[in-house]
Amino acid sequence: MADSCCASSCSDDTARNDPAWRRALWIALVVNAVMFFVEIIAGAASGSRSLQADALDFLGDAANYAISLGVAGMALVWRARTALVKGLTILAFALGVMVSAVWGLVAGTQPDPWAMTGIGAFALVTNISVALLLYRFRSGDANMRSVWVCSRNDAINNLLVIGAGFVVLWTGSGLPDLVVALIMALLGLQGGWQVVRQARYELAARGVPV
């Protein structure tokens, strides 16, 4: 029956239970955990809000990958519920980044542009590798889509950090670093809402109150 097997559930069961899917998540989990420590240390040492914001994003992604590994193979309702939590987590991190950036505007900062561009470039290569690894799973259910959204947004964030580093170097002002942190927060809000919306749709389609 058409209404008992939608594209986001039955068609992706094989992919979710495929060892390649779980292996990709494990790799993404380890890479993001390592990059969190790299960027949080570099961000604190360089005084860059955008690097610190990106580090928190790496931490959130590592947690999301761990959750995805835990629910892979479960019923769609449970995967959608987990994706809803993940989407709300993304929104929370985005709000935290926004508050940090606003505080930086008030307090004033002068980050190290060389650290921003160097660590940003390293993070970009890392995120592109993870995004390519997860690309084949981008059209699955809300849980799988949330993994792809995280990887895609991370690569965009890294490009912004690199660009801000060059502008800080050119102008001598820390404002570009704070502007990029705000942009990253807006991207997080958009991505988190995208995941929440699809998760709510999947739950509503099965009569589960949200």
From TrEMBL:
<keyword id="KW-0864">Zinc transport</keyword>
<keyword id="KW-0812">Transmembrane</keyword>
<dbReference type="InterPro" id="IPR050681">
    <property type="entry name" value="CDF/SLC30A"/>
</dbReference>
<dbReference type="InterPro" id="IPR058533">
    <property type="entry name" value="Cation_efflux_TM"/>
</dbReference>
<feature type="transmembrane region" description="Helical">
    <location>
        <begin position="24"/>
        <end position="42"/>
    </location>
</feature>
<keyword id="KW-1133">Transmembrane helix</keyword>
<keyword id="KW-0472">Membrane</keyword>
<feature type="transmembrane region" description="Helical">
    <location>
        <begin position="178"/>
        <end position="196"/>
    </location>
</feature>
<feature type="transmembrane region" description="Helical">
    <location>
        <begin position="114"/>
        <end position="135"/>
    </location>
</feature>
<dbReference type="Pfam" id="PF01545">
    <property type="entry name" value="Cation_efflux"/>
</dbReference>
<feature type="transmembrane region" description="Helical">
    <location>
        <begin position="87"/>
        <end position="108"/>
    </location>
</feature>
<keyword id="KW-0406">Ion transport</keyword>
<dbReference type="InterPro" id="IPR027469">
    <property type="entry name" value="Cation_efflux_TMD_sf"/>
</dbReference>
<feature type="transmembrane region" description="Helical">
    <location>
        <begin position="62"/>
        <end position="80"/>
    </location>
</feature>
<keyword id="KW-0862">Zinc</keyword>
<feature type="domain" description="Cation efflux protein transmembrane">
    <location>
        <begin position="25"/>
        <end position="203"/>
    </location>
</feature>
<feature type="transmembrane region" description="Helical">
    <location>
        <begin position="155"/>
        <end position="172"/>
    </location>
</feature>
<dbReference type="GO" id="GO:0005385">
    <property type="term" value="F:zinc ion transmembrane transporter activity"/>
</dbReference>
<dbReference type="GO" id="GO:0005886">
    <property type="term" value="C:plasma membrane"/>
</dbReference>
<protein>
    <submittedName>
        <fullName>Cation transporter</fullName>
    </submittedName>
</protein>
<keyword id="KW-0813">Transport</keyword>
